[in-house]
Amino acid sequence: MEPQNKLINSAEDCVDEALCGMVRASSGLSLLRGHRVVLRSDLDQIRGKVALLSGGGSGHEPAHGGYVGAGMLSAAVAGAVFASPPPASILAAILCLHSAGASGVLLIVKNYTGDRLNFGLAAEQARNHGVDVDIVVVADDCAFTCPSKAGKRGLCGTIFIHKLAGALADEGCSLVHIVAKMTEVLQGIGTIGVVSLSPCSVPDCRPSFELPPGNMEVGMGIHGEPGVKRSKLATADELVSAMIDHMTNPESQSCLHLSTGDVLVVCVNNLGALSHLEMAVMTQAVIVCLENRGLVVARVMAGSYMTSLQMAGMSLTLMRASQETLRLFDAKTSAPAWPNLSSGCTSGRNYLTNPTTVSSGAHAEMQPEGPQSPVMRKVLERVCSTLLEHQEELNALDRACGDGDCGNTHAQAAKAIQVWLQNHTVPGCPGQLLSALAALVQEKMGGSSGALYSLFLTAASGHLIGGRSHAAAWAGAMHAGMQAMKRYGGADLGDRTMLDALYPAVDELMKLNSTSPGGEMAVLKAAVQKAAVGAESTRSLAAKAGRASYIAAERLTMPDPGAKAVAAILSAVVEALEEQ
User: Which of 65, 138, 170, 335 has its CA 20 to 30 A from that of 40?
Assistant: First the structure.
């Protein structure tokens, strides 16, 4: 037996326990005793109407039990993981629906041999019991240019049929009418799948295939079977364009024929393990690609609708839609897994709102107060180059206590300031300069570091208004900035943060309020030395604030990257001033 690779109790019981968990979490669902069949709790509502039954192997959740509800499926039957359900359970579901008063039962079946055989056998048995039964087989796979005799596979397009047929059944349409309408709709549905990072694995089994790093499978099914081709991992835009090219290739026997102006319903389906961020990027890429090809995107579903356990990939389903199709698609349903989207058209919608205009900050065209400051320009240039030089060092330190991006975050700020310097004069008023830098850092640096630096600069700028730039004013500004970081950030000296470098430096700078032996430069150099010592001292401190506070103390053996960054910035400032 393979080692357990899922959060389950046992491979033998996981399907039954999963069905129980889903049903108990939804008051609109129930289980058929003795069978893996999910039913509507309000079966009395289907009396005199066509009932819909679908299903298949488990591992594709929320399909198919999640689509049981008013306006969609009346019942769903589940097999073992990736295995067709047994005919006895399918028949039990059909007879249950018939007994509830259904005028007929429509079986919606994905085009896999096991499903066709078992649902077909149950349908024949049900007819012998006097039940009016018919079958719609969904075969929406566009991966194979020359499908085998088995035909195209049934993929995520199946849930579109659940929805449209369910809406028609809810309106009281006949079984014959629903079958005819779905047969017509199926001609305009196509799906292609891609796995970008990893295959899936059945509980207690090895992954279905090996995928080397940097590779992806295109056109695979939903049971872990490999795709039609393997290629190098591409960008989201490149991948989506290639997928749509493949789906609409006129030389393919599986081609989905689309024409300029066609109205589409789109499903961007997470196969199990993609992050929400990746899914949102892929969704944007799909919408843009389709619109650039002259197609109208009417509705977009983006999420996990028909999964393949933990497969790190997605499938794309497109459906040509008439106004009648959209009406049925928009009809409300109580099925827990259906998103109930807005009925507004995606294409053509103005989705951008103009922000309130602010007349200050990084984007304002600043009129320098007094003379320009070439000294401060040199200081900023040196700070930026220093942060870029230390980027990898800071990243390495951050990997030991955080997410490894401290250097990148500071580099983003440095690059933003460099661009700003190219397009702006540096004002002679220090308060005005710090205010502009605060807005720039807030926007471009991001994260908690961006907020902390922006707090520091904003608080400090208030102590340098009116053109004050003498040493004591700068010392007071630094102290005010540090206090703001402490007040809102919640950290203090000794908590293993950037304050451990900033605190001792500011304490030293406060000596600028009085005549200092050796002059101002001596105090500045001493402050830099104190910052360096403070940063190094974090090596032995226990983290009490920030992301590092969640890391076991014995793993924190390197200096805090934020403190090292502060020490590097102060050192760069003093070096630039010395050169002046």
Answer: 138
